[in-house]
């Protein structure tokens, strides 16, 4: 069922300048920040467009203190350490690709100097190799600051097992730690608070059985005490952070629910500096978002692209709206902007870290720190448009209003055959148009149609649609 866009929802991005530092403030993303009005109050009761009741929180605000170094944005954590807002996720990349992609990511044309991985991915040594190669290629006089986020898997929860996991991660990263040209900043997180049998790809008992003896010997089975195993893990991360033995810039959690984070108030010496979550949680768990803002827990988002615009058919009208924003900014920058860049920049401009994953070198450049930081601040209307479109992707409930370019072909003197041109040069026949006829279709900016002389296909003309979303283009066809 299509749903209307919530025109009453406010989306604002306020950048306050305090001593050269940006503070991202103001209302956030979507209706998650709009307080539910009580019955009888002016405006009545506001319902989430997606009908997701969990999205209706109080007027939370999200944002970290954002500072800029060499033109690139960093978030300032609660401990006053900094972390880049743009990273590169390598968790599930093919191992043979990782060193080369990491090396490329940290070069000056991209400057994506945060790499996100996990102990369970078994690739931390390859990340270190890529960092070493990348810094060597930079050939700098001084040290190059590079950040690595890695995580402790749920099979390694409990003090002893977490200690083992961290020690193995440190060993894998040792070559980068020992490199006198690298200032390596480490961020350790608990990947999950526990194993969940309700999640289809998790098999708690089997995974425990298949662990090697040296892991089992390090500590008890965390599935036997799921409510406390992660607490012991957190105690170890606190000890690690307080020891000053390694350059631990932060400790945090990933995929934690608000209930678990709130429990930490009862025992933790250090509150998490970072929470890494799926983009879904960011938009639909208003109370979690509000809690993070209140306690200065910085938010990192994964799945921002795969969960949304990587499947345009899921919400085609929403995709068109994102394309429209991309087209508007592209005209301003005089360079092409992708829908993915729009989503990532939208998150980043709200003080949220992004860690897109790719195996494509072109995408690595497009979604790099340099590229995303060059995108100007979105207007309030654009922020609103993006927010509604992302919500439509996540809910699978497409926008009601579509947006496109209308094209009318006026055939002047000869019959023609009209074709839709694919991105790879393929042709899809639309139809035979007689002289004097008109035909109207819809498309997107810069798309190409082709008309052939119906009597002689050696004669044809390409028609590139140089129009903006919402325009109506008229083309007179004369062959």
UniProtKB/TrEMBL annotation:
Keywords: Signal. Residues 1-26 form the signal peptide. It holds the Pfam family Aldo_ket_red. One of its GO terms (molecular function) is oxidoreductase activity. CDD domains: AKR_AKR1-5-like. Residues 113-388 form the NADP-dependent oxidoreductase domain. This is NADP-dependent oxidoreductase domain-containing protein. It comes from Phaeodactylum tricornutum (strain CCAP 1055/1).
């Amino acid at each position: 069922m299509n749903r209307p866009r919530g025109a009453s929802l406010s989306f604002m991005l306020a950048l306050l300048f305090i001593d050269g530092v940006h503070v991202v403030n103001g209302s956030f993303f979507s209706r998650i920040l709009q307080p539910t009005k009580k019955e009888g109050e002016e405006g009545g009761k506001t319902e989430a467009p997606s009908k997701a009741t969990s999205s209706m929180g109080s007027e939370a605000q999200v944002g970290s203190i954002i500072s800029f170094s060499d033109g690139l944005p960093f978030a300032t954590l609660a401990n006053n350490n900094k972390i880049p807002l743009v990273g590169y996720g390598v968790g599930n990349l093919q191992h043979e690709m990782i060193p080369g992609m990491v090396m490329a990511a940290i070069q000056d044309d991209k400057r994506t100097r945060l790499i996100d991985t996990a102990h369970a991915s078994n690739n931390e040594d390859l990340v270190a190799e890529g960092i070493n190669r990348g810094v060597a290629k930079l050939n700098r006089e001084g040290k190059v600051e590079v950040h690595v986020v890695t995580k402790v898997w749920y099979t390694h929860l409990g003090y002893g097992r977490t200690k083992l996991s961290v020690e193995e991660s440190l060993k894998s990263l040792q070559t980068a730690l020992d490199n006198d040209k690298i200032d390596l900043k480490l961020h350790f997180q608990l990947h999950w608070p526990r194993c969940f049998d309700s999640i289809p790809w998790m098999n708690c008992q089997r995974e425990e059985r298949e662990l090697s003896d040296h892991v089992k010997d390090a500590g008890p089975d965390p599935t036997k005490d799921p409510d406390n195993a992660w607490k012991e893990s957190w105690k170890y991360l606190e000890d690690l952070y307080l020891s000053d033995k390694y350059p631990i810039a932060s400790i945090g959690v990933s995929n934690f629910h608000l209930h678990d984070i709130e429990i930490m108030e009862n025992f933790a010496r250090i509150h998490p500096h970072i929470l890494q979550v799926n983009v879904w949680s960011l938009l639909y768990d208003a109370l979690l978002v509000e809690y993070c803002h209140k306690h200065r827990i910085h938010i990192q988002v994964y799945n921002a692209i795969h969960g949304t615009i990587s499947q345009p058919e899921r919400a085609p009208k929403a995709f068109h709206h994102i394309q429209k924003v991309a087209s508007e900014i592209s005209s301003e920058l005089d360079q092409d902007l992708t829908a993915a860049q729009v989503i990532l920049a939208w998150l980043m401009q709200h003080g949220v870290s992004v860690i897109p994953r790719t195996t494509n070198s072109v995408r690595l450049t497009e979604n790099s720190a340099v590229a995303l930081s060059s995108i100007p601040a979105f207007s309030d209307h654009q922020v609103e448009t993006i927010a509604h479109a992302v919500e439509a992707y996540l809910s699978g409930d497409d926008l009601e209003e579509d947006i496109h370019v209308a094209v009318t072909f006026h055939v002047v003197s000869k019959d023609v055959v009209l074709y839709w041109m694919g991105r790879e040069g393929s042709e899809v026949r639309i139809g035979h148009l007689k002289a004097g006829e008109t035909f109207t279709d819809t498309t997107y900016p810069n798309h190409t149609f082709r008309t052939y002389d119906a009597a002689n296909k050696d004669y044809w003309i390409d028609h590139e649609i140089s129009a903006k979303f919402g325009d109506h283009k008229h083309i007179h066809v004369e062959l």
